[in-house]
Amino acid sequence: MFDAALLDQIRARFAHVDSCPFTGARIFFENAGGALTLKSVVETTTRFAAIPDNQGRDNAASHALVDVITKSRADAMRFFNASEGAVLFGESGTELLFRLIQDACLGAGPGIVLGSTVEHPASRSACTRWAEVSGRQYIQVPHDDATGQVTPQAYAEHVTPDTAVATILHTSPVTGMAMDLPAIAAAIRAKAPNALIIVDGIQHACHGGIDVSAAGIDGYVISPYKVFSRHGYGIAWASDRLTALRHDALTGAPAGQWELGTRDTGAYATFSDVVAYFDWLGGTLTTDTDPRARLTAAAKAIHAHEHALTQAMLRGIDNLPGLTDLPGVHIIGGADNPAREGLVSFYSDSVPTAQIVAALNDAGIRTHIRKADHYSGNILTPLGQPDCVRVSLAHYNSPAEVRSFLSAVQSILAE
What are the CB-based long-range contacts (under 8 Å, 24+) for 16-20? Predict the structure, then answer.
């Protein structure tokens, strides 16, 4: 876990870390819905919003904007640990998942589309649509309801040599469980080496490092507002072979160009702020001068800090009982699940979920209700559970905030 001095430095870099501009003091445990924003991102957004110039003109301002975009692409490649391929900026993470899956389905050779039942509707919906359009069968590998995961072995049982396109969810926004991405990709490649593999990394991105080179995949998508930036854009990495496929583009545009129209230079610049933040954090933890090594150090420390916080939430801290000690409380995905990444979802036998979320909100603790709807029904419906409380952490959250949460939950359930 981060020491108190470093945690104070971390928290000082985020806007509204302990108060809501509408309601006042609060603890933010709704990070899976959108993380806090770096102060540097707010400043960068304001600065670039005032610039009237466009990219691609022959003047100093335009050249400066192009330099910002070029740097941002390089920063994103380092963030993804990509040695080849292209970085593309789009409307949102969901939109980019649709685009990459569309291009893969329309451009791959004959064969099936393979995904899993644990996935977010962004990838499942895209696969359903584009498998139908491209005349392919769409098969979903069943996930384990008890753990909230889909395993490499489960993929191995369903992948066939004619698998043309495959999708993988890196981390679930409902259970908080991470999938073994490299092992799942390897299981797919073992039988279908030419399959195009696209990953939804939207929930994972702020919790513990991305390495597309080690994973052996073709596409990886994130939503920057869930990794300390802002709304209004998404980022994806696409391999050389995915980029080489035909995709929506202006006639006569340069080969390999993904973006349609002029995108906000400020979006590019704010992602450089995100990478710079990870670089700063890693620099406080290692003396290694290699930029990627600093990102890796930051990711490992973030994962360790969040693991300690979720364990405290589950098992208790100081003299406060954890969620597992409270009668009638059930943990989605199981309490003893090593795949957990900064998120605990639970429900109570005695108090309705909506009442718990409302009472926590009244106590100044922001959480969220997940319902068995088109977003979370794939996880909750097989459990026979209509809803759950989602408590989602980030590395700027503190042990004191966990203590406040546990104290509030104990009181709510007792009443």
Answer: 17/396, 20/366
